[in-house]
Amino acid sequence: MDCIFCKIISKKIPSDIVYEDDNTIAFLDISPVNKGHTLIVPKKHSENLIASEEKDIHESLNVIKKITPAIIKTVKADGWNLGVNNGPAAGQIVKHTHFHIIPRFSNDGLKHWHKKSYAEAESKQIAEAIRKEI
Ligand code: AMP
Ligand code: ZN
Q1: 3-state SS assignment for residue 12
Q2: How many CA atoms lie within 13 A of 88 on its CB side?
Q3: Which of 8, 17, 31 to mutate to test the pocket of ligand 1 (most atoms within 8 A of CB)?
Q4: Which atom of ligand 1 is nearest to the CA of 28?
Q5: 3-class DSSP state for residue 106?
Q6: Which residues have any ligand 1 atom within 6 Å of their CB?
Q7: N or C: the chain end with fewer CB closer than 10 Å?
């Protein structure tokens, strides 16, 4: 398997690691959206969030809670986004589950997603279809 994050985890390629324990690693994104952009990565390989084991996700969320205040303090951010890209259509490039911590600055110029609206009764139909599917 040719997975760049598995290579980072096994130290076959270098990265700027900010935190590591038995289950999780966190390192700086090589192409940051903003300074301090950090990836939190379960060490056990899985392709995406849904394919991950629950305990690995829990561990990653614990690490996010633990290290994000330090990231924000270090780069003096005004806020932060937590991001997970799932599938190519959503911008996932690396097929190893990971969370993006993106520090935000009041003047960073980034725009939030453009929002759409539902047609008459469409939201009720979609919500019902999702409820049936769960
Ligand atoms: P995604 O688009 O959610 O799959 O995000 C993958 C992220 O991994 C991108 O933001 C890349 O900039 C980042 N990335 C790719 N290769 C490396 C690397 N060797 N070290 C650090 N970050 C990387
Ligand atoms: Zn991997």
Answers
A1: coil
A2: 0
A3: 31
A4: 21
A5: coil
A6: 4, 15, 27, 29-31, 39, 85, 91-94
A7: C
Q: What is the pTM of this model?
A: 0.96
Residues classed as catalytic: 98
pLDDT digits 0-9 by tens, 22-66: 999 999 999 999 999 999 999 999 999 999 999 999 999 999 999
Which is the closest atom of ligand 1 to the Cα of 98?
A: 3
- Residue 77: partners with Cβ closer than 8 Å, 6 or more residues away: 34, 36, 71, 103, 104, 105
Domain at 4-133, CATH from 3.40.720.10, 3.30.365.10, 3.40.50.150, 3.30.428.10: 3.30.428.10
User: Which ligand number lies closest to the CA of residue 31?
Assistant: 1
Distance 78 CA to ligand 1 centre (A): 23
